[in-house]
Each structure stands twice: as structure tokens, then as C-alpha cells.
């Protein structure tokens, strides 16, 4: 708790991108990904332009390349899947280095890799330049149901608490000489999960009582309303608009 | 199984998004029924629990390990609507924050992992509980089967979505074989863990398990060495019905109490203004010189009248004063009682 309350993915800064209202950034990231997904996969140069666009956003946000690339590692499972694709897909085959690969599979793998990577990079940039609280305010501003936003904010607020509780349970298990080695030890782990559920639920009940005693009646007061000026919207939407131009060029060229 | 961007084409993602939005809308309404105004904190904490428990690694063998997906577990522990909400919020946060699952694929992910797993597992669970004997072990067995089927069901749903809007033409047969084959294996693990976890919760707090609510044991007493059912047996009706009847009982009791209370208070009040009258009487005697200043309030007016009577005919004045007060007090309380009755009737109709 002493290490600040920002989440690990957030990178503190005062760049123009950090300063944009959260809902404009959310809208921009979402529209950008939609545009990327609807780009034809044969227009390979378009994806390079997208990457350049994202890189310029990262430059303006002063997010170092190493940080961005490290966060991209979350994609690795899909990369493994994409590598498998050329071997299993149908259609005509080409022979590269003695391997028989499907042309369609290669295109498919490229498609998933390119679009997936760009999507992950956009999400990472969004999370790196927007604080959690702001992100929730932005979601609320974008007319997500208030109850859903409340649930999300409680999940975020208590996620670390519950995770820490689980970590303490693990330390307690290990300090008693327990080491989970295989299926035989699932019973112990499942009992831990059950205890964790009971603790979480009871904590929820206590949190609710504490809120009721402070006057909670089903809705949270909106203390800081986020607003965006026309200029801020223009700045944020510059990214998806540029991407849209590239996408249209990709369809017609 | 988080689907990344670009895996499913844009139109199919949009349709899945609409389906997910509809499911969320229904679940929001349903969760309010399951948890009333406690929805936000409890569902939030359960979402945090699912988020945490997905990080709990279950070693399988030789370095490989799996983790819980949690859809079936959530449905059995907190009910299907809340479970859909919790898993969806987890997926939303994973997509926005951790870039785990694409933003455009959010609809596909929610439909697949929140909606299908929850609905299938809860339907199977309820169906089995209806057939199996009402025992704790039945709950464990039912949750095992429910979780076992929920994971391949999600794989089937994914295969269907892929068949409609997949971006690679891998034959559907291959996708189905691979997905369902792998997920049957995952489902076995999920089933064992879910059943063990539900069993662990039932052992400690059976009242928290949404799926085991009909399982409450009757209170039995040992009388002269023989077990007999406690005379005041618990109502066998399910919880919502019990709540409704208890509310009606509460209302009827409240009305009767208020009537009795009003009658009793009016009797009590008839005695009370006696004392008030006396005070007014005394005050009036004190302020007999300032009649006009005290004449504002009716009470003072009566007092003043009484005083003028009292001057003339000693004890008679007090009796008249009390009589007037009794009539006035009764009128006030009769009106009050009638208004209270009027107030109560709309409450009755609304309940």
C-alpha cells in the first residue's frame, strides 16, 4: 500500500497524451482497433503505417520502446497459435525450406499476428497513459451502465487486496512445508480457493455495511465529472482518423 | 482462450458485441434481484475473487499447470446473473488494462466465456439438483458435471463463432476437433477444482453457496434419547417466497399494531391532556392579567375560559376542561388514525 496506488501498467507522466480526457482516449483506442481489424490483410503496407502511427503516439506520450515491447509479450500464446496455422490450414501449399505450408494459413497467421499485435499495442498505450480511476470515469462517461462501472471499480479497488490475501495464504501453506507438485495436491489448493471466496464475500458484506452507514443508497455520487473540449476530441480522434484514411487506401489500392 | 483482435472478422464481432450487451442488460436486472442494493460491492468483490483465483496455479504434472476459468464456479456460488456480470467485468478489465483479449473481440469473449459457460453450467447444475437426492454430496457432484460440460460448451460456442466469422480458412472440422479435444481435457481439471472448491465452501458456509440454498437441514431435537423434528419447523418454501410472506406478515402486524397503538395512545392521550390542562390551568391563573397575549393558542384560550369558569364555580371548571380536552384529543387522534389508515392502504396495494 505504501508504494502508491497507481497500477503497474500505468506510467506516470505529464505528456499531451496523459493530459487528454480518459473517454476521448478510450474512444480513440477502440475506433483505432476497429479500423485496424477491418483493414484487408493483403495491404501489408497499411499495417506498417499503423505501427508508425502508434509509434508516434508512444513518442508523444514519452513511453519508451522497451516498456511497450515488454508489455507486448502478453501476446506470446497467440503467436504460438499463429505459428501453427500455416501447417493446419487448407488450400494450395508452398514449400519453404522443405516445409509444406498453406498459403491461406500464412495469410491467416500474418492477419492474426499483425492485427493482434496492433490491438495489444493500442491497449498497452491506453493503459500506460491513463490512470485506473480515470479509466473508470471515462467508461462511465461513455455511458457504460453505472452499476457495471461500480462493479468494475470495486474489482479494481479490491483486486490487489484479494490477490495479497491469496499470496499470504500461499506463504502460510509453504511455511508449513506444503508444496503443490501435482494433481494429488489439488484438494489443498481448492480449499484455499474456497477460503478465499468466503473471505472475499464476507469482505464484500462488510464493505457494503460500511457504505450503508455512510449513506449509500444504490448509486455513487459523481464528484468529478470529466469533460472534453472540442480541441481535445480533435487531438484524440486524430489517430483513428489517420488510420481510417490508411484503411480506405488499403481497400481501394 | 481470450480471443485477440483480428481473429474474428468485424461484422461477426459486432454481432457478438450486441449479444454480449443484451446479456449484460438482462444480468444487470437479474443481479439486482439476486443481491438487491448490495450488488455493486458484492459483485465487485466476487469479480476480484475470480480475477485472483485465475492466478492460482494448479500443477498438473512435470512443470505444466493450469488455472481455473471460474465461470461455472461463479454461477454455482453467487447465482447465474451475478456470475455473468462478474466474469464480464473481469474480461472487460483484462481487455482494457492488461491487453488480454482484443478490444473489438470483447463481445466474442464475453459471449463465449461469460455467457455460455455460466448459462450452460447453471442449467446443468439446476437440472442435476432436481434429479439427485437433496444432500451435500449431490451439490458437489452436480457442480463437477456442470463445470465439466461448461468448458467444452464454450469451445463449441467459439467454434460456431469461428465458423461464421473466422478470418482463416482452417477447416471447421479441424478447429472443432482441436478446440473441443483440448477443452475436454481442460474441462476435467476445471470440474475437479470447481467441485473441490464448492465442497470446501459448503463445509464452512453453506449459506453462501447460491446453488445449495434448498439444502438447509431441519432442526432435530433429542427428546428422551430419540431424535424428533423440532416442532417449529423451518418453512420449506424457497427464500423469495418466504421473504414475500414475511413482508405481508410484517405489514399486517404493523397495521394491527398501529391501530392498537393509536387506540391505546388515544386513551393514554386522554389522560395526558389532563395534565396538560392542569399546566395550562396553572399558566392561565398565572397570566390572568394578560389574557390577550396568551389568547393566541387555542389551548391558552381554553385555559382562559376555564379560568373564568373556575373563578365562578370552583371544581366544575376542571371537569369541563378535561371533558373538552378529551373530545378534542379524541377527535385529533381519530383523524390521525384515519389518516394513518389512508397512508397504509397505498403501501398495501404497492406491496
What does this structure look like?
- The complex is a heterodimer of chains A (253) and B (351).
- With 253 residues, chain A is mostly helical.
- Chain A contains ten helices and two strands.
- Chain A has a two-stranded antiparallel sheet.
- In chain A, a hairpin with a 2-residue loop joins strand 1 (93-96) and strand 2 (99-102).
- Chain B is mainly α.
- Helices cover 74% and strands 5% of the residues of chain B.
- Chain B is built from eleven helices and four strands.
- In chain B, helix 8 packs antiparallel against helix 11.
- Residues 233-280, 283-322 and 340-351 of chain B have low confidence and may be disordered.
- The chains are: A mainly alpha (253), B mainly alpha (351).
- The interface between A and B is large, with 88 and 73 residues.
User: Which band does the percent of strand residues of chain A land in?
Assistant: under 5%
- Which geometry of chain B do the CA atoms define? elongated
Cα shape of chain A: flat
Summarize the biggest pleated sheet of chain B. 2 strands, antiparallel
What Rg of chain B, in angstroms, do the CA atoms define?
A: 35 Å
Please state the average pLDDT score of chain B.
70
How would you describe the oligomerization state of the chains in this entry? heterodimer
Q: How would you write the strand order of the largest sheet of chain B?
A: 1-2
> How many helices of chain B in DSSP terms?
11
Radius of gyration of chain A: 23 Å
Largest beta sheet: strand ordering of chain A: 1-2
Largest sheet of chain A: 2 strands, antiparallel
- The count of β-strands of chain A is 2
The helical percent of chain B reads: over 70%
Terminus-to-terminus distance of chain A: 54 Å
Main location (chain A): membrane
Organism (chain A): Streptomyces nogalater
Keywords (chain A): Cell membrane, Membrane, Transmembrane, Transmembrane helix
Membrane topology (chain A): Multi-pass membrane protein
Amino acid at each position: 500500500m505504501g508504494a502508491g496506488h497507481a497500477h503497474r501498467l500505468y506510467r506516470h507522466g505529464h505528456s499531451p497524451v496523459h493530459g487528454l480526457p480518459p473517454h476521448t482516449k478510450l474512444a480513440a483506442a477502440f475506433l483505432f482497433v476497429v479500423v485496424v481489424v477491418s483493414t484487408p490483410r493483403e495491404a501489408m503496407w497499411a499495417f506498417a503505417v499503423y505501427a508508425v502511427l502508434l509509434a508516434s503516439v508512444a513518442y508523444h506520450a514519452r513511453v519508451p520502446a522497451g516498456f511497450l515491447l515488454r508489455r507486448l509479450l502478453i501476446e506470446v500464446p497467440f503467436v504460438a497459435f499463429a505459428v501453427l496455422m500455416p501447417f493446419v490450414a487448407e488450400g494450395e501449399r508452398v514449400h519453404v525450406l522443405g516445409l509444406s505450408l498453406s498459403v491461406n494459413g500464412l495469410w491467416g497467421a500474418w492477419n492474426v499476428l499483425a492485427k493482434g499485435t496492433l490491438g495489444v499495442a493500442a491497449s498497452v498505450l491506453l493503459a500506460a497513459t491513463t490512470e485506473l480511476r480515470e479509466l473508470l470515469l471515462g467508461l462511465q462517461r461513455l455511458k457504460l451502465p453505472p452499476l457495471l462501472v461500480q462493479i468494475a471499480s470495486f474489482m479494481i479497488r479490491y483486486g490487489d487486496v484479494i490477490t495479497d490475501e491469496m499470496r499470504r495464504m500461499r506463504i502460510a501453506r509453504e511455511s508449513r512445508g506444503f508444496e503443490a507438485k501435482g494433481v494429488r495436491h489439488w484438494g489443498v489448493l481448492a480449499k484455499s480457493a474456497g477460503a478465499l471466496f468466503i473471505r472475499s464475500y464476507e469482505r464484500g458484506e462488510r464493505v457494503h455495511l460500511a457504505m450503508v452507514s455512510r449513506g449509500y443508497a444504490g448509486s455513487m455520487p459523481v464528484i468529478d465529472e470529466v469533460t472534453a473540449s472540442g480541441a481535445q476530441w480533435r487531438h484524440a480522434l486524430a489517430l483513428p482518423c489517420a488510420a481510417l484514411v490508411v484503411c480506405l487506401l488499403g481497400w481501394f489500392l | 482462450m481470450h480471443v485477440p483482435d483480428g481473429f474474428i472478422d468485424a461484422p461477426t464481432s459486432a454481432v457478438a458485441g450486441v449479444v454480449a450487451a443484451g446479456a449484460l442488460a438482462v444480468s444487470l436486472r437479474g443481479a439486482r434481484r439476486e443481491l438487491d442494493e448490495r450488488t455493486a460491492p458484492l459483485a465487485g468483490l466476487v469479480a476480484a475473487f475470480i480475477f485472483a483465483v485465475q492466478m492460482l496455479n494448479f500443477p498438473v504434472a512435470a512443470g505444466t499447470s493450469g488455472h481455473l476459468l471460474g465461470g461455472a464456479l461463479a454461477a454455482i456460488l453467487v447465482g447465474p446473473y451475478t456470475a455473468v456480470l462478474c466474469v464480464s467485468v473481469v474480461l472487460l478489465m483484462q481487455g482494457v488494462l492488461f491487453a488480454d483479449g482484443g478490444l473489438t473481440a470483447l463481445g466474442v469473449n464475453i459471449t463465449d466465456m461469460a455467457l455460455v459457460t455460466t448459462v450452460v453450467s447453471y442449467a446443468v447444475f439446476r437440472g442435476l439438483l432436481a434429479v439427485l437426492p437433496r444432500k451435500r454430496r449431490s451439490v458437489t457432484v452436480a457442480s463437477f458435471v456442470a463445470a465439466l460440460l461448461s468448458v467444452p460448451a464454450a469451445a463449441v460456442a467459439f467454434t460456431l463463432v469461428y465458423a461464421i466469422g473466422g478470418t482463416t480458412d482452417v477447416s471447421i472440422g479441424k478447429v472443432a476437433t482441436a478446440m473441443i479435444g483440448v477443452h475436454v481435457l481442460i474441462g476435467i481439471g476445471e470440474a475437479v477444482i470447481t467441485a473441490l472448491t464448492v465442497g470446501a465452501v459448503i463445509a464452512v458456509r453453506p449459506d453462501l453457496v447460491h446453488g445449495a440454498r434448498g439444502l438447509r437441514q431441519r432442526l432435530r431435537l433429542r427428546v428422551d434419547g430419540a431424535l424428533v423434528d423440532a416442532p417449529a419447523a423451518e418453512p420449506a418454501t424457497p427464500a423469495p417466497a418466504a421473504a414475500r410472506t414475511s413482508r405481508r406478515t410484517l405489514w399486517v402486524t404493523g397495521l394491527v399494531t398501529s391501530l392498537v397503538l393509536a387506540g391505546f395512545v388515544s386513551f393514554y392521550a386522554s389522560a395526558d391532556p389532563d395534565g396538560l390542562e392542569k399546566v395550562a390551568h396553572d399558566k392561565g391563573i398565572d397570566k390572568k392579567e394578560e389574557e390577550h397575549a396568551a389568547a393566541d393558542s387555542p389551548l391558552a384560550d381554553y385555559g382562559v375560559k376555564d379560568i373564568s369558569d373556575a373563578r365562578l364555580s370552583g371544581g366544575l371548571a376542571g371537569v369541563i376542561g378535561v371533558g373538552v380536552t378529551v373530545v378534542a384529543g379524541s377527535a385529533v387522534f381519530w383523524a390521525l388514525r384515519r389518516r394513518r389508515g389512508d397512508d397504509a392502504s397505498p403501501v398495501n396495494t404497492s406491496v
